[in-house]
Amino acid sequence: MTASDMTTTICASHLAKSFGATRAVHDVSFEVHAGEVFGLLGPNGAGKTTIIRMILDIFKPDQGEISVLGGPMTEPKKEQIGYLPEERGLYKDLKVEECVLYLAELKGVTRRDARLRAERYFQQLDLTAYKSRKVNDLSKGMQQKVQVITTLIHNPRLVIIDEPFSGLDPVNTRLIQDILLKERQNGTSIVMSTHQMVQVEEMCDRIVLINKGDSVLYGPVDDIRHRYADNAVHVVVRGELPNLPGVLETKLKSSAYGIPPSELAGSAQGSSPDTTKGAEYMLRLPKDMTPQALLRTLANTPGLILESFELAIPTMDDIFVRVVSGERE
Amino acid sequence: MKKIIRIATSEYLRRVSRRGFIVVLLLPLLIIAVIAVASYFSASATLSSEQGVVGYVDPSNALAHAVQPGNGVDITFRRFADEQAARTALTNKQIIAYFVLAPDFATSGKADLFYWQNQPGKTVTNKFNQFARSSLVDGRDAAIAQRLLNGTHFILRTPDGTRTFSDNDVFAIIFPIVVAILFIIALFGGAAYLLQAVVDEKENRTIEILITSVTPMQLMTGKITGLAAVGLTQIGIWLLGGFVALSAIRDHVDFLKNVSVDPAFIGLAVVLCVLQYLLYGAVMAGLGSIVIDARQGHSYSTPFTMVAMIPMFFFAVILFDPNGMLAIVLSLFPLTAPLTLLLRYGMTSIPLWQILVGIALLALSAASAMWLAGRIFRIGMLRYGQAVSISEIAASIRF
Known about the structure:
The complex is a heterodimer. By secondary structure, chain A is an alpha/beta fold. Chain A folds into two domains: 3-226, P-loop containing nucleotide triphosphate hydrolases (Rossmann fold, 3-Layer(aba) Sandwich), CATH 3.40.50; 230-312, no CATH class. Helices cover 33% and strands 27% of the residues of chain A. Chain A has twelve helices and 13 strands. Chain A has helices at residues 3-7, 48-55, 75-78, 96-106, 111-124, 140-152, 170-185, 197-203, 221-227, 265-268, 291-299, 316-324, and strands at 8-19, 22-33, 37-41, 63-68, 81-84, 158-162, 189-193, 206-211, 214-220, 232-238, 249-255, 279-284, 305-311. Chain A is globular, with a radius of gyration of 24 Å. Chain B is an alpha/beta fold. Chain B has two domains: 2-38 and 162-398, no CATH class; 49-152, D-Maltodextrin-Binding Protein, domain 2. In chain B, 66% of the residues lie in helices and 7% in strands. Chain B contains 16 helices and six strands. A four-stranded mixed beta sheet of chain B has the order 2-1-3-4. In chain B, strands 5-6 form a two-stranded antiparallel sheet. The mean pLDDT of chain B is 80. Chains A and B meet through helix 4 of A and helix 1 and helix 8 of B.
């Protein structure tokens, strides 16, 4: 086994899968490394779930190969994998604790250990008071927290989670995020399928974007965002912004305090905004103009106070929409 | 194996802790208890009218040499000179009833029975008949006289001597039928539950979690084994309840005094029950994995239920011709074998080869059905809102 094998948790190579005449996945390749959060992204029906099921050996690929934890899937390996499906997979008529212990035991954890670990998670996720209730009596968010416990209770090396934050309020979202990031710190690989691009930006190290069964984007999140960045900058200035030579487009985004342009007093009346409070602009530059050149121009403009200057990096949300709607790099 | 046991245990505990199961379990026990209590009181009431002194008036002196019933019988017969004396004794409760024999009793056998409020039970009339007949054997050797009075008691024995049938042991015939009926009730209840459970797991997506922990075969085997354990528990508790009730009342009910349960029958019943549960459980689990919802599952399972019920539909044929062609065929066909063999057991001596071949075919079918259920389950488990076609099932078998 090479060093690369040691750190590669999943290696999918040219995967293809069809159901009858429907081509679900076509030539998808990616790798997931130990200790990273990997985003498996794509619009509805893109083929993400099929890929997950191929990883889990529920489906066999028609073509291509998939290696999980250093080779083909085996029964013992299943005990090192935690899976959180998009839809709740819990026994509604069982009590919370019973349900968690049962699913943990099926993952090879002894009942005693499962009880200890469950107790810790119940406390951490504020579920202790609910452990004797039936799963069906819990709210959607609480059921999701129980589902997260069943995914992690056996200390898996690979975690596959499909929309893990579904139904959670911001506090619980943060709680689950922290738990998952701690798992990553401990060397666990996390494959996360989600439509919440904010979570992708916050958590994912790398992603693969699937569209209509094809891999259309693959790599580290930061690299991808930079690759898709236009030659543009965001600036926050106090004072009147003059016409800047060479700048292709000047777009008022909001006041420096987050007030959208439509609500800015001046903007609403078609005149200049109240620049004494500061305003944020997006400035699009021609290809031959560097941000450094613009920075020098702004710094030398009399009466203009430059409060912030940063490259305009597109959000993952923007990139997702652009790629899925047909625009390639 | 550990996971199979865990799944089986979980299925078992979930099933037996359900209110519906407990109701179905207790209902027959309640019926048994009610029958036992009613039999006890009925026997007690009969007993009071079947013990004591019974008078008789014998104007023709026909019973001059009649012999009183032997030890262990609580009835004695006392002769009265005339009807008036007998009536006085009845009024004074010195006797419980009296017979007045016709003057031509020796040839006509006619006699009138007089009683006050409670009609004497059959034992009284039977014993009086015996008492009357004893006068006919007067002068013969006592042992021969007793034999003549007792009549002939047939015991049928199989050629190999392994089974016997007594002409007065009705219990030996009824008991296997009762076990067969209890078995079929438990089987259908358990099978319907398993079908529902698999459909539910599919519908609420629990199945996705399970199959990332265990193989479809482990899951199926665990579920079906759990179901078989539930069925055996159910029948075991019913039989135990029956035996407790029987022990409590057997000394008070003539019909039950000498009954015994054939251990070979119990052994055969257990083997057949377990195998039939495995076969039926596999069929239901397989169906549960390919149907869209529980409603469709129940409609698909109906043909299998009807087939398993065939021995009940042809009960009369099996009863009157337990070794006929139909009974033999049904004893060998796996879905009907357990019920047919159980029903036939009390009525005939089933040839050993039929039992062995029936069990072998049943075991083979159960093993094949479990294997097939695992294969079908693999293609059906993730099919939501769409049934699996016959061609897909065929393809999964070939795979």
